[in-house]
């Protein structure tokens, strides 16, 4: 992004007012800096340099405000409980993370320069799997200490609703996916009844992480946090690894992740049994994203991936459960 396509909310008068509100002193926009995480989590965003360092300044709509406040409160709670890899936003002198100005909300978060994720080579890094296992373990351990007033996410209800929409609007796609959704529900429904709900990141995968040379620094994009089955974050992570490279589903990242998680004892036996079908189930959330973007290529690729996951479910489940035994 250069000065000519700089978002209008980043005019110097707005910047000065926002930085003054947070006692950051003088500020300079840095549109040339590429930012980690999804740009779709805000209306617009940009790095800014201040007397106290570089920060990411984001703009949210008024409708986004309540959810962004809940995310900020969660991050403050997690930080207070010494959960690692948490990057909370700044707070003003009244303890507020969001600044209301020009019919929008604004938020400052420290900018962290991480190492670029080597894709798809990162899927073969065992140390990344161990780092994610440590984070999942601690979140499962500390999650019950944090009050989360939200309805639990029901992945099977989500799939049913999506399939009903496809039946009306995308008949051919519905017909291709229907046998897959039926197999997933048959396998997963009885298992989920025994899986406890826990606080989950909700969108845990390496693109939502900031890495150092050989360490996990921070996890970002908590937009989908909430109570979910205890295996949810692990399943989403595996699904994303396999979408980069299906061979990653049996590679070092996955092996070291699962072995370390199993050793922690924080995931229920039913959660482990639900892992393979849960990986496939969560891919319907990604399919919905490609449908929203009308990305025909990614829709087709996602369907291919779903067919692979469902057809190889028994083999994947056997492999992953055997890895858990290698303690």
From TrEMBL:
<dbReference type="Pfam" id="PF01636">
    <property type="entry name" value="APH"/>
</dbReference>
<dbReference type="InterPro" id="IPR011009">
    <property type="entry name" value="Kinase-like_dom_sf"/>
</dbReference>
<dbReference type="GO" id="GO:0016301">
    <property type="term" value="F:kinase activity"/>
</dbReference>
<dbReference type="InterPro" id="IPR002575">
    <property type="entry name" value="Aminoglycoside_PTrfase"/>
</dbReference>
<keyword id="KW-0418">Kinase</keyword>
<feature type="domain" description="Aminoglycoside phosphotransferase">
    <location>
        <begin position="41"/>
        <end position="258"/>
    </location>
</feature>
<protein>
    <submittedName>
        <fullName>Homoserine kinase type II</fullName>
    </submittedName>
</protein>
<keyword id="KW-0808">Transferase</keyword>
């Amino acid at each position: 992004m250069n000065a000519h396509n700089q978002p209008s909310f980043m005019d110097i008068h707005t910047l000065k007012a926002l930085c003054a509100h947070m006692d950051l002193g003088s500020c300079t926009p840095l549109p040339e800096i590429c930012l980690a995480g999804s740009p779709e989590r805000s209306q617009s965003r940009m790095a800014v340099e201040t007397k106290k360092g570089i920060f990411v300044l984001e703009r949210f709509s008024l409708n986004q405000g309540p959810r962004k406040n809940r995310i900020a409160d969660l991050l403050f709670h997690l930080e207070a409980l010494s959960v690692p890899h948490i990057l909370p936003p700044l707070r003003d002198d009244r303890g507020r993370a969001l600044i209301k100005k020009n019919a929008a909300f604004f938020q400052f978060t420290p900018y962290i320069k991480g190492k670029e994720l080597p894709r798809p080579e990162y899927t073969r890094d065992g140390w990344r799997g161990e780092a994610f296992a440590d984070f999942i373990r601690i979140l499962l351990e500390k999650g019950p200490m944090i009050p989360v007033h939200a309805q639990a996410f029901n992945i099977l209800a989500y799939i049913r609703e999506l399939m009903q929409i496809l039946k009306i609007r995308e008949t051919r796609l519905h017909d291709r996916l229907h046998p897959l959704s039926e197999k997933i529900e048959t396998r997963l429904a009885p298992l989920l009844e025994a899986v406890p709900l826990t606080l989950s990141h909700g969108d845990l995968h390496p693109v939502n992480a900031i890495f150092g040379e050989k360490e996990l620094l921070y996890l970002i994009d908590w937009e989908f946090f909430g109570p979910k089955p205890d295996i949810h974050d692990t399943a989403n992570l595996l699904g994303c690894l396999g979408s980069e490279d299906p061979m990653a589903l049996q590679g070092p990242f996955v092996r070291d992740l699962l072995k370390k998680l199993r050793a922690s004892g924080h995931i229920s036996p039913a959660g482990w049994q639900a892992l393979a079908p849960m990986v496939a189930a969560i891919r319907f959330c990604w399919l919905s994203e490609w449908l929203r973007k009308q990305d025909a290529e990614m829709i087709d690729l996602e369907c291919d991936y779903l067919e692979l996951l469902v057809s190889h479910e028994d083999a994947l489940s056997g492999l992953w459960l055997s890895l858990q035994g290698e303690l």
